[in-house]
Amino acid sequence: MAGVWRSGGLRWGESAAELVWVGAGGERRVSRIAFGGEVGFRVVGERTCVGARGNPCPGSVAVARGSSQARCGECARLDRVHSVAADGVPDDPRVYRVYLAWFGPGLVKVGITAEEREGARLREQGAVCFSWLGRGPLMAARRCEELLRAALGVPDRVSYEQKRLVRASLPGPGERGEEVRGLHARAVGLGGWPEALEALPCQVVDHGALFGLGAFGPAQGVVRELAPDGVVGGRVLAAAGPDLHLEVAERHVVLDTRLMSGWGLGAAPAGGGITVPVRPLRPPDVQVQLF
Length: 291
Known about the structure:
By secondary structure, this protein is an alpha+beta fold. It contains six helices and 15 strands. The chain is globular, with a radius of gyration of 20 Å.
């Protein structure tokens, strides 16, 4: 269909985020995210599987509207086969880094990423600040990651709902950097580090300015899902990880750009606002009422 593109996701560079668009013939273009600028699109057709590892889904299978992953069961399985996160490539020869990521007071995790990706993984997760802990072979990095999780009492993941809840009320760079430095000192002081892993000094990288944080109040809602003929449009307040924070008719609404994958997307009418389902932002321990 003329004028219809598909989302290639939100891509983070060192200085800004971009929305990637893929045309019907495979051509690609990007839209740089500018704080204070407008973003908008309308939803066309139905959501279909995006395939795996650069290959299209053989059946163009329809997928759930509200899922953050636009893959059918078979393509999701194929994608995980070669996933480092699933330990699908234990003999990966690349150098890996162990990191300490901070998302808000008390919201910290330890993880690993390929050294060649530098800090891209941290920007993709929406880490407000971070520091490297060590570098070495994949399995040594994985063992260190597990050791530090247990010793520091930090989780293996922080939910996006938790991240969204704290973004409007974060302490300043000095205070959040102090928490990272304190945890880094505890981590490198532990015994039991794998011999093949080199400990790295604490150097806090802060993404507050890059993400545009600190210039808005709490979010009133989160886009639950996209729907055919729905419209999303608003003024960009901030971007962190896959999330776009939008001002829509004096409301602060968060759009997880992963929900855009698999849909056909066209130009939105001027001032279209948001006509797709929006849910309240809720604490992670609040259960959805079913009956």
